[in-house]
Amino acid sequence: QLTDLLQQYATAFRDPMMLQPPEWFKAFIYCEAFLQLPFFPIAAYAFLKGGCRWIRTPAIIYSTHVATTLFAILAHILFHDFSKGEHAGPQTLRERLALLSIYLPYLLIPLLLLFTMLCNPHYKHVEKRKRK
C-alpha cells in the first residue's frame, strides 16, 4: 500500500516533511501539482520533437522556480531543529546529509536544464532585424 511505503520512507530517511508537511512545504506541493506537473508533457513534447526554441522561456521559468523551492527545502533539512516535531527527523549530520541526498537531484536536474537553456547556442534568442 502507498501509505505503508510512505511510512517506510519517512522512517528510513527520517523525513517528517512527508508525514506532517509544514505549511510552506504544502505550498510547494501545490505549486508542483498545478505548475510543475503540467510542464512535463509540454517539455517532453518539445525536447522529443526537437528544434522547439519556444521551450526556452518556459524551461527557464520552471527551472528557476524549482531551484528556488529546493533551496528552501535543503536549508530546512540542514538547519531546522527537528527534535521538537511529532515525527522523527534527522538529528545527526549524517542523517541530515542522507536526507539531503534524496532531495539534491531535484535541484541538480533543474539547474542543468537552466544551464542548457542559457548556454546552449541552439536555445539562444536570435534577434530578427526589421526590413526597411
From TrEMBL:
Q: Which domain of life is it from?
A: Eukaryota
Q: Which residues form the signal peptide?
A: none
Q: List residues traversing the bilayer.
A: 27-48, 60-79, 99-123
Chief localisation class: endoplasmic reticulum
PROSITE patterns documented for this protein: EXPERA (PS51751)
What keywords appear on the UniProt entry? Endoplasmic reticulum, Membrane, Transmembrane, Transmembrane helix
The way this protein sits in the membrane is described as: Multi-pass membrane protein
GO cellular component entries: rough endoplasmic reticulum membrane
Task: Give all residue intervals belonging to the EXPERA domain.
Answer: 1-114
User: Where found, per UniProt?
Assistant: Rough endoplasmic reticulum membrane
Recorded family membership: Belongs to the TMEM97/sigma-2 receptor family.
The record's PANTHER family line, in alphabetical order, gives: SIGMA INTRACELLULAR RECEPTOR 2 (PTHR31204:SF1)
Please identify the protein, giving its name as recorded.
Answer: Sigma intracellular receptor 2
The organism of origin for this protein: Aegithalos caudatus
